[in-house]
Design goal:
The chain is an all-alpha fold and about 80 residues long. The protein is built from 3 helices and no strands.
C-alpha cells in the first residue's frame, strides 16, 4: 500500500511528458513557419532581394553623380 501511495504522488514523469509535448508543439510550429515552402520564408527572401536591388541602384546612382560632379572640379592637392 505504501508503494501505491508513493507512486500516486510521484509527478516527475508527468513533468517530463509535459515538456515533451511542449517541445513537439514548438517543433511543429517552427516547421510550419520556417519550412522551405512556407509563405513567410518566401516573403522574407523576396523582401531581402528587393532591398538588395534598391541598394545596388542607389549606390550606382550615387557613384555616377559623384563622378559627374568631380569632372568639373580641379583636383585637390593636399
Amino acid at each position: 500500500m505504501l508503494f501505491s501511495l508513493n507512486f500516486k504522488k510521484d509527478e516527475r514523469g508527468v513533468t517530463a511528458i509535459e515538456y515533451g509535448l511542449i517541445a513537439i508543439a514548438m517543433a511543429a510550429a517552427l516547421t510550419a513557419v520556417f519550412g522551405s515552402t512556407g509563405s513567410i520564408s518566401s516573403k522574407l527572401k523576396t523582401g531581402f532581394e528587393n532591398i538588395s536591388q534598391q541598394m545596388d541602384s542607389m549606390t550606382k546612382n550615387a557613384s555616377e553623380d559623384s563622378s559627374e560632379n568631380n569632372s568639373n572640379q580641379p583636383p585637390v592637392i593636399s
